[in-house]
Structures are given as C-alpha cells and as structure tokens.
Amino acid sequence: GAVVSQHPSRVICKSGTSVKIECRSLDFQATTMFWYRQFPKQSLMLMATSNEGSKATYEQGVEKDKFLINHASLTLSTLTVTSAHPEDSSFYICSALRTSGNYEQYFGPGTRLTVT
Amino acid sequence: GQQVMQIPQYQHVQEGEDFTTYCNSSTTLSNIQWYKQRPGGHPVFLIQLVKSGEVKKQKRLTFQFGEAKKNSSLHITATQTTDVGTYFCAGRTGTASKLTFGTGTRLQVTL
Question: What is the Cα–Cα distance from A38 to B59, expressed in whole angstroms?
Fold first, then answer.
C-alpha cells in the first residue's frame, strides 16, 4: 500500500516554543492532506484539511494562528504548533488522500508531542 | 455538526468468540470506511462501503452498510489475539473528501 511518513515521530519541547511536524506522501501525489489530533483512548479529531497551493481549511474550534499548515508541494504538508503549551501535548497524525481508486486516506505513523 | 457514534466503547472477549461493533451516523453518508488502530500505532485502512445494504467480507471480517446509509457494522468471527486494537468507522457526506471518525471500539482478546 501507499506510504506516508511523518517526522519527527516524537518530540519534547518547552512551553512557549514552536514545533514543526512534516508529513510526506512517498509514492503518490496528494493534493489534499489532513491533520488529526488524538488524545489517549479517544478518537481522531480532524483539525484541518491541507490543500496544495492554497490555504488550509480549519475545523471549528481549531485556531489557525496556533496551528499553521503549509502544503507547498504535492508530497509535503507541514503543521507548526506555535507557542506550544502543555495542553497541546497529543498524538498528531496526518493522512494523505489518494484520489484514484477508493479515495483512501493513508495515514502517517503519527507524532507524539509532549510540551513541558 | 455530523456525529458518528460507535458501540460498544470497549469489549473484552476470549479467543474464538465473535465480536461486533456498530457505527451510527447522525447524517446520511455517501460512503463509510473502517480502520484498525493497534495500540501505539496509526489507523490502517480496512475497507470502504459505498452502496446501500452492501456487505463485504475479508476472511473473518464481515462489513455491512445499512440500507439508509446511516449505520454500519463490523463483525469478526472467531477472534484471535491479533485482532486486538481499536476499530474506527469513518464516514463521508456528499462529495466532501474529509472523513468524520467514529468514537471507536476497543477490542481486547485473551486466551
């Protein structure tokens, strides 16, 4: 199946700093990528839809100035958590939409962010 | 907004027993997908259902899409310890590309 990578897999940062997470589709081009957030033992909550070459679409309640998304190429989307706080600690997962076949979303392995 | 609920939230079975998780959407879905997430892992695509009343099988797994396209189920026959994980349904509405994930059902299988 298609492969989506995320980097870093784990990151620990101090409160007030910014963290960038990269999401890459390795063997297909993805005009659309999604960013999810998952708290322990909870479901995936969609944060935003990242569209190549245009602004991301944020879900209600997600601060666009805090979670900056850039989808500059067909294989790369980045999520930057700005001025991170302990409550931003979570598992961040991206997915890339393959628009052929089943319109499957291929998920990255996730990034565990811990803000101290 | 759209809500997708799953029941049960958690189920513990002995190996060899059957397992079913039910998924209910507050709105009509254009299609529904099922994912499995192992502890510490990321969701892995299992299947997509598109047609009203559709039934698909993958070995011991049987997936159904309701006639009204608002509910779905996943049934596992004769569970194995490798089935352990959280099963999520995820639905799309209309022509939207984004998925709304269900609340998930965590399955524990013991010998």
Answer: 29
How far apart, in Å, are the Cα atoms of A67 and each of A64, B66, B68, B91, B102?
Answer: 5, 37, 37, 25, 23
Among B42, B98, B106, the residue with its CB nearest the CB of A34 is B98
Residues 6+ apart with CB under 8 A from B31: A103, B48, B49, B50, B91, B92
- Nearest to residue A114, comparing CAs of A35, A25, A11, A20? A11
Euclidean distance between CA atoms A114 and A85, whole angstroms: 9
B43 touches chain A (CB under 8 A): yes
Mean pLDDT throughout A24-29? 91
The percentage of chain B sitting over the pLDDT mark of 70, rounded to a whole number, equals: 100
